């Protein structure tokens, strides 16, 4: 039997789309995420779409981001933004809430959270 990708285990395209929708809705509405929100454009749709395309491939589904934009080059793409531990922690907390709210099972959520934290930590480019 083939082992399911993380993309398939969480529910595929529909759940990844819901996760991205919820992530940006939380970022836009929860005061705790204000600094993170302020780093984004007023209209979050483009950011949401790029996160959806990135997560699709990152989780083992269709590699939509690469197909549309080439290699993610995450650190380079995030360099224009001052990202420290506060911004990293807000991003991770927002994603954790989004994963809980869309119903990703706890064991998978915990594993994803570790990976999200490592990736978000790699984006840091300012002290503190």
TrEMBL record:
InterPro entries: GlbO/GLB3-like (IPR044203), Globin-like_sf (IPR009050), Globin/Proto (IPR012292), Hemoglobin_trunc (IPR001486). The keyword Metal-binding applies. It comes from the Bacteria. SUPFAM superfamilies: Globin-like. Keywords: Heme, Iron, Metal-binding, Transport. GO terms for molecular function: heme binding; metal ion binding; oxygen binding; oxygen carrier activity. Signal peptide: none annotated. Belongs to the truncated hemoglobin family. Group II subfamily. This is Hemoglobin-like protein. It comes from Azoarcus taiwanensis.
């Amino acid at each position: 039997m083939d082992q399911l990708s993380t993309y398939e285990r969480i529910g595929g395209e529909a759940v990844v789309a819901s996760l991205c929708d919820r992530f940006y809705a939380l970022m836009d509405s929860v005061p705790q995420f204000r600094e993170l929100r302020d780093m984004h454009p007023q209209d979050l749709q483009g950011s949401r779409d790029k996160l959806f395309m990135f997560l699709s491939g990152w989780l083992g589904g269709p590699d939509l981001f690469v197909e549309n934009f080439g290699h993610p080059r995450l650190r380079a793409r995030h360099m224009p933004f001052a990202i420290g531990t506060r911004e990293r922690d807000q991003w991770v907390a927002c994603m954790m809430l989004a994963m809980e709210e869309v119903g990703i099972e706890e064991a998978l959520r915990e594993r994803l959270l570790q990976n999200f934290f490592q990736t978000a930590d790699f984006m840091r480019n300012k002290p503190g």
